[in-house]
């Protein structure tokens, strides 16, 4: 008897990995073929709003970056008053962004960000754990992870408590510098996502990669399954 085939629902289609002995595209239950090279190409879809595949991501990115700063400012400087925030913005919107936007080049903020990143990446790679095989991907790959998330979480809590107890760092400074940390992360994320996009284009980690033929959507959605 033939072995059962794995299927998964991707982008609204039922798909399965290509058969080793066939170059045919897999079929949905309705019989429509799914082309692996164009699957997920939303830029070709029709819709009510032309250009929405670019306008939507740009609107989300453009709105969330200032929104998180405004929320922080209202809580940190205005006791959480949105009314006071609106009044300040209405009085001098351009001046507000020029004078009250927290710095994205603060050395202390970057020391917290980079220190935490290095520490957690080291834990991901060094802390042992059970091998975990994820679900078969549409391209036929099986992502393999080290299931050490809980161990890393507990180590992080212990390291935080010990670091505070013995004066390695002062946690209150995270609160004091939270605006600068958020501002720095906003800038970092923009360039980091560009880096991931170009890596997915030219040096993908696996065959689970591709493009939507729209760089805005590629930037927002991602073009590969990255491996750390």
Please describe what this structure looks like.
This protein is mostly helical and 228 residues long. The protein has two domains: 1-39, no CATH class; 52-221, no CATH class. The chain is 51% helix and 6% strand. It is built from eight helices and four strands. It has helices at residues 52-77, 82-91, 93-99, 107-126, 149-165, 172-176, 178-202, 215-221; strands at 8-10, 13-15, 130-133, 144-147. The strands form two sheets. A two-stranded antiparallel sheet has the order 1-2. Strands 3-4 form a two-stranded antiparallel sheet. A hairpin with a 2-residue loop joins strand 1 and strand 2 (13-15). Helix 1 packs antiparallel against helix 7 (178-202) and helix 4 packs across helix 7. The longest helix is centred in the N-terminal third of the chain and has 26 residues, at 52-77. The radius of gyration is 23 Å and the shape is flat. The model is unreliable at 1-44 (pLDDT under 50).
Topology of helices and strands:
Layout: E1 8-10, E2 13-15, H1 52-77, H2 82-91, H3 93-99, H4 107-126, E3 130-133, E4 144-147, H5 149-165, H6 172-176, H7 178-202, H8 215-221
Antiparallel strand pairs: 1-2, 3-4
Helix pairs in contact: 1-7, 1-8, 4-7
